[in-house]
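Just wondering, can you check both lines?
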Amino acid sequence: MSKTKTKVKSKNSGSTARATSPKTGTPKKKPRVTSPSKSRTSATTRVTNVQKPKTTRSAKHSDRIAAISEGKNIRTYTSAMDYLSLQVNFERRPPRRHQRGVYTLERMKQLLADLGNPQDQFKAVHIAGSKGKGSTATMLAEMLINNGMKVGLYTSPHVMDLRERIVIDHDMVSKPKLAKLIARVAEVSAGYGDKKPTYFEILTASALLWFAEEKVDLAVIETGLGGRFDATNLVNPVVCALTSISIDHVAQLGDTVEKIAEEKAGILKRGVPVISSPQEPGVKKVLKRVAQENECSLAFAGDDIRFSYRFEASREAGPQARICVTTPTSHFDHLLVPLVGEHQAINCGVAIGVLDRLKQLGYKIDDEKAVSGLTHVRMLGRMEMICESPRVIGDGAHNAASIEALMRAIGQNVPYDSMVVIFGCCGDKDIDGMLKLIQLGADKVIFTKVSSPRSADPADLAHRFAEVSGRMAQVAPTLADAFVIAEKAVTREDLICVTGSFYLVSDAKRLFADHPHRSMSTLVQTA
């Protein structure tokens, strides 16, 4: 057995003594040999060494957030995103019915004026509607770009990257540039107090600034919510467009299609021509009245613009939608629609109607180049094939009309044996309207949450689905859990459809980002 050594403190050496037990070799409790004052100093030093860095980091972080919230020190994309996250965001938390007065153009008017009114430095096409705005805007932008024009495109919401909203000629705004734009907006609005711009107003101002700086030939601008009080409603349109208007955002826009149409028609400007998709009688009546009040020419696809569409199928190309459109300046015969679905055929007809009005206003547009431009159309979150095995389609349909169009489009274009629908939506939507239509195509339904504080409760969705359909459904706490259930229920010939919210589609794309069979194309393969 080895001997246990004991170190002894020498009175003269000042070295530290360390005694161990001869039996166990464990350290004995150190004798109190230091003076009380030295002991307190040592303890203070130890506490300071442990706690001070934490306190400093916390204080620095708090100071940084406080500065960013006031619009200061925004130098990077990360700090710009932090600033945005601190602002009122009606996309995630819209005001309740009694708070509708928060919608106003006064904040935006002041902000744009203080920024030098960038919206006055370019012309725009302004598009409103309940569904199809983004698709119509994108198809129009591609036709214009292919004619050699420099085109700004502003749409919402985004699916994967915030910068999807702000694009010039296919290029999203860069992170450093967007940070600078947001920093400028923040600096200008720092002293606004309780009139600070919202999340959407900041993004809209940033987009208008960039389009002005880059001297775009034309900007295609999609409204966010509504039209009359939308932050985009200060642009200078040369043409306005209205896509299909249906029940949506009831708490904010009204509980009838006529009331909603009144809000959407708020984008009409005196003397500016308007193109509209086919609308139901009550909506048409409202639009005609507002157009007359503003002395606008108003043309409806199918009525004032000769428009028709049909479906055809071939072994090579599968099902396809083709449209025929006759305008005062052009005739498009059997034009292939670049996006899947009957509703996209209508949206394409509206985009061509806008193109015709632009030609009448003197814009030099070649029809063949415009048609060729449609082949470049790609859209995230609209009938998008996310994964090939299992087959997963994502679509951000978020109202009853969109769900109906989606179910029809899948039935017409995508062969499958059975379909599992994973559904989640925000609680302020026309939930019962959507649930009634899901059953038209779904063989099995799984309800889950969306990544938004507005998310509807999946258990409540399942209960309401049972009431409107008489069918049972499953509930999953997360989208990942829903996919586990869905994958056990499908075979190779089956289909999983994720819908109800762009938030849900975005989450689905992230889940499958590293999947070995993720789809490399945004287009649904129909054959």
